[in-house]
Amino acid sequence: AKRSFEYEVQFVGRSYEDNAWIAREKLEEWGFEKVLQAFDDKEAAKAGAWTRSLTAVEVEKHLADLGLDAEFATHSRIKGLSGGQKVKVVLAAAMWLNPHLLVLDEPTNYLDRDSLGALSLAIKDFGGGVVIISHNREFTDTVCVEKWSVEAGKLTVTGNNYTQKNLEKIVMKEEEVKVDAFGNVEKVKSTRKLSRKELKDKQKRRAAAKKRGEEVSDSEDDF
Predict the structure, then answer these.
(1) pLDDT per residue over 146-198, tens digit each?
(2) HEC letters along the chain
(3) Which of 22, 38, 159, 175 could cross-link to 190 by cystine, CB 3.0-4.6 Å?
(4) Could you tell me which of 167, 163, 158 has the C-alpha nearest to residue 137?
(5) Residue 141: exposure state from Cβ atoms within 10 A (0-12, 13-18, ≥19)
(6) In the chain, what are the domain boundaries?
(7) Which of 119, 159, 160 is nearest to 136 (CA)?
(8) Phi first, then psi: what are they for 106, rounded to 5°?
(9) Helix axes 83-95, 56-64, angle to 10 degrees
(10) What is the reported pTM?
């Protein structure tokens, strides 16, 4: 028989003595996918916490990796820390459970140059994925291998991954709307610069359609 996970379920309005162990597949059939996922994520976080010793030495070392001295890590309250030191505490807390993905929104705020260096090293040593939202170009140039820049309604994607694979910069224009003289709102189809491979594939599809005797439009958007 196929092995399956079972979950202890407590029914609303009934005693815990009436709890039942129900197979995951059955709970999914009943529409509890999101509840199961949230429970699994919580258990995974607990498991990650157990892999690290919650001791003063371990915490001090973790905070020191982000540039916060043991003096502040152990003998200071958060309300007594500076803005930059509080940022370090928040970053350290986010990295404590070794998450797969780290999302940082303006992480360089209030950090001095030494702290920025410590943060850069921590991000480079981090084994998971990192998404950074920042206006600090010098910092992003140091730690980001791929950058998405938004300016004047355009998204420009650059970086090593794209230059190595496509040898070009890909520019995508955001979807816009226009209003005609009668007040009707029309969406304008988003456009982006195609790579050489995409252009070649488009030409092949156009040639194949002509060979089949199909009427081929002159518009590039039709293929």
Answers:
(1) 899 988 888 888 876 544 454 444 444 444 555 555 556 565 555 556 667 77
(2) CCCCCEEEECCCCCCHHHCEEEEHHHHHHCCCHHHHHHHHHHHHHHHHHHCCCCCHHHHHHHHHCCCCCHHHHHHCCHHHCCHHHHHHHHHHHHHCCCCCEEEEECCCCCCCHHHHHHHHHHHHHCCCEEEEECCCHHHHHHHCCEEEEEECCEEEEEEHHHHHHCCCCEEEECCEEEECCCCCEEEECCCECCCHHHHHHHHHHHHHHHHCCCCCCCCHHHC
(3) 175
(4) 158
(5) exposed
(6) 1-51, 54-144, 147-215
(7) 119
(8) 50, 55
(9) 110
(10) 0.46
* Token output for 177: 């709307």
What amino acid occupies position 70? A
Place of tokens 């998450």: 99
CA–CA dist 99, 96 (Å, integer): 8
Token reading at 35: 């509840």
**Comparing C-alpha atoms, which of 96, 103, 108 is closest to residue 62?**
96
The neighbour count for residue 121, using CB atoms within 10 Å, is 14
Token output for 208: 């194949």
Topology classification of domain 54-144: Rossmann fold (3.40.50)
Q: Is 127 left (phi over 0), alpha (psi -120 to 50) or beta?
A: alpha
Tokens of 218: 């002159």
